[in-house]
Amino acid sequence: MRYIVLVILLLSTVACKKKAEFDKEQMFKDIATNTILPAHLGLEAKANTLLLKVEAFVQNPNSIALSEAQTAWKVAMSIWAFCEAYNLGPVKERYLTWIIDRTPTNPTAIETIIADSAQLIDSSFVAEQSSYNKGFPAIEYLLFNTDNSKILSQYTNLNNVDRRKQYLTEVSSNLALQCSNLYNIWAPDGENYSATFQSSLGNDLQGAISMLSNSMINLTQEIARKKIGKPLGKEANDGLVHPEFIESPYANYSFDIILGNLEGILLAFTTMGSGFDDYLNHLTENEDLSQKIITKIENARVKIVEINATLKTALANQTTKVEELYTEVRDLLILLNVDMANSFMVTVLPSDSDGD
To answer: Residue 239 sits in which domain range?
Structure first.
């Protein structure tokens, strides 16, 4: 009897030490339901608002209508920046991120299209255009390329006024369509990829944990290397800053876009319900790594707020502050790319923007 009691005690001890299962399906459901779906629905709505404001502006070009179209672009762009963190599955396979927002835009090509009176500008024509000639960056160029008084002249007094209006309208319409397509991929009453996402529980490349981790890592790498590092001169050999490489050169909205990107990454961790932070805490049996990641994201956001200027101005007057921001994002990338990926046991794939 004494030996039977001993065996029971040993089995009880082992059972107590065995880690409880983490409900990954619930986590992915929470991320999809509470973060991804509302953000993409909001993007669809704001892209349609942008189209309406653009249509109002081209019908009656004036300073108020222009300002409202510019504001609508910024609002939609901020929500898109958030959604960039979720570039996975059919979204990635169909290159929707590039169709919606591929930088830098090509002003020469856009102006050539506008000047070519023999070419009909309609939805079919814009759909076939290079991704560098449409999407958010092209609309930014058409709405922000100089001071507002000169932009009004472009839509009232210069040659090819009607063609400029038509191109702006068609690229805005195409953007609204693409944002609607994007939401439809995730929507329960559409393609319902959110259900597939929730049930992809493996750690292979098609598993939700791998796809979302890679999307967040790739975006963080893009922020560090392309959005901050390249303008800061990190990829040049001349020791100079290169403001010509900033992401939003016309609206000077680069920092706001980065803030949206960081918010999208953060909400994958801190979404209502369970998020990546809870899963990391479960795997590591403490909160150290998840808190380090969250703190780095918050530090980067604070650095941007402290700069209190556009990236272009900061590169000229607050280079040290931009360097500090770059360091914070680079450190965040290491935490995600190495520590988080190792904890999740996922393979990190090269980014689509590698080599840009």
So the answer is: 203-344
